């Protein structure tokens, strides 16, 4: 399932651990990777291997297959740093950091202290009616047509509407914002990725400057008053945080929704179970987060360390795919089964000090999407004759999904 690569391999890397992983082909496939590729990875890969293509641009790193090993490194920021791990700034020859994603302790604690109250469960729950209205408005556009382009008509627009409102950015520019996001997250071309980073940076810096001159009732204006170390955030700290919200807010929930609704479309008994008892939705969303996690994440070794007897050198990337660890048979009994009563922990939204800042918003968006779609749409299925494409890459997602119902 994985072939040895021809790249230059560091001398401490055993040849038998060198692989090129199909999971990072960064192309569409019509084979569901959750049902085929990921179980095969668990059956054939060792606990750790050196994958030559885990990072965009076919850059290498150590790949951890087991959930238990990933839990350990997520709880060990001393040995595994996130500082600069996304290479966003480096790609365009700069040195800013994505906040709080690329920040290490102790200053990470101060940033989260400023940020957490704005993303608390109570703050996010206060958005419930607004989020529900967004979902209903989008669903009303197609519910009587008997079919929909789920990605284009719902899952791309729904979470992005919320984030653009939060940041005070214009809804009419959504197509352009989504194009930039796709060029950053769903490409293997380093130049395309860098050009998109520049576009996003230039735009956000203009918006930040506009808020300095004329503050508004939006989140960007609030960030200008955040403090760290007894001072207000500087320009690049404000930008680094806004960039983080742009990255997370315009993609992750969209990708999760595509995976979830593709599953529901192909498993009508699961749809009908939730319709019959909507009180299952909260636990069902946690199981969906486990079973349909989308993100591959990274850490960078800060010193020489061993994992399963293999030497990792300082500066080397250590990689884990939440879609893979979420279906680890050594961690989850019968991981391929989607069970609404599982109540199992998962790492789809991170773990440890870097647990996703927007996790409460993401959960609420997913719960409301499931509730409103199932309440408005009768039993649905993948449109007759339509083949579902799955994108293999650092964000594993359904790239197109057409649904129909009677």
TrEMBL record:
The source organism is Alterirhizorhabdus solaris
Gene3D superfamilies on file: Cytochrome P450
Where does the record locate the signal sequence feature? none
What are this entry's molecular-function GO terms?
A: heme binding; iron ion binding; monooxygenase activity; oxidoreductase activity, acting on paired donors, with incorporation or reduction of molecular oxygen
The record's annotation in Pfam families points to: p450 (PF00067)
* CDD domains hit by this protein: P450cam-like
Similarity field: Belongs to the cytochrome P450 family.
Q: Any idea what this protein is called?
A: Cytochrome P450
